[in-house]
Amino acid sequence: MPAADEQQLIVQAKDGNHTAFRHLVERYMRHAYNIAYSFVGNHDDAQDVAQETFVRIHRSLSSFRGDAEFSTWMYRIIMNVSLNRLHEQKRRPQGEMVTSDAVKPLTDSQAGDPVGFDLQDHVEQAIHKLPALQRAVVILRHIDGLSTKEVSEILRCSEGTVKTHLHRGLKKMRTMLDFLKDE
To answer: CA-to-CA distance for 148 and 101, rounded, in angstroms?
Structure first.
């Protein structure tokens, strides 16, 4: 969707046009889910986070000034909702802890490659063991392919801070995944 069309949808949605808002949701829901899943690690929580994100967007759309891209603003909200979900999980008694899905959907490239799936599973586990900010930076920079500047805007920190957390996060992941060299 061209930027002008997106801007028009945003203006219409701000004016109360439910169809325009629905188009924004349809455009970004899958992406919101994927980002949320990267953080929370299971299907149900990722769906809840994505839905809560759009509830929050709907409630605060009138305050969206357009200083940043809509997608950047949405990323911030997803990050906040995801981090809140993770904090809630930590506060739950151990018996109520939500764990990652046991069965994850396979991509076409993994369907005939159990080793590739195993590798992806190890990488996902390593990402989920990172501290929240390092995890956010690794996901946004390397999985979602955003620039350092875009990540710094989303997280509201300097590019230097992003680079530091990226370096530390990747270093920790290399250490966690070092055993794969031998396999």
So the answer is: 30
